[in-house]
Design brief:
The chain is mainly α. Helix content is about 65%, strand content about 0%.
Amino acid sequence: MLMTTSEPVPADGMTADEGAALYRLMTWLSPAFPVGAFSYSSGIEWAVEAGDITDAASLRAWLTAMLADGSGFCDGVFLARAYRAATANDTAALGEIAELAAAFVPSRERQLETSTQGRAFIDIARAAWTCDGLDDLVSACGGVTIYPVAVGLVSAAHKIPLAPVMHAFLHAVVSNWISAGARLVPLGQTDSQRILAALEPVVVATASRALQASLDDLGSATFRADLASLRHETQYTRLFRS
């Protein structure tokens, strides 16, 4: 349950503030929220072209690694640390986290992907919902604000609890990866949902690790996925921007 105030819980089990927080979270991390996620594959397009991903099983294995040992976990850590710095109004720490997160992206196209989505997320959320203090938090990040940092600081400014934000963010990321893979392999809707269901425990475990991790725990072991994002830049035919 999303707890945002101390007001009494009504008979239906959710306060007005809790309902509003859930509404915003579902909106911001819905595939319909216009951050342009559908344009990017995070290197999956090259992996399909190279024959690393050929069916539902190989897509599931690839995404499991990306989530648990690659960009999924790292983005979760950056989200959590940005959220906590924003909640504490520690603008110096927030700026350092934003700078490190931007530098941590392994390729030019992934940088384009995550920075473009981060900028769009902030701009659209700020245009649709007024929120005191958000502008100062955004300014503290300086230049580039990548997607997980943007989600963390906006959610903190709106006082949406961190744990559900983390789970919703990782669900959104995985869903976009699966959507890209389904179009590239291609796969049907049933297989796509089976992969999403199979990744549920991986999302839960990765969210738990990211919530407990420090910046010193950052690290990736998905070298093939990083190479995929680099090689996609020169791929002859492409449907996606990364």
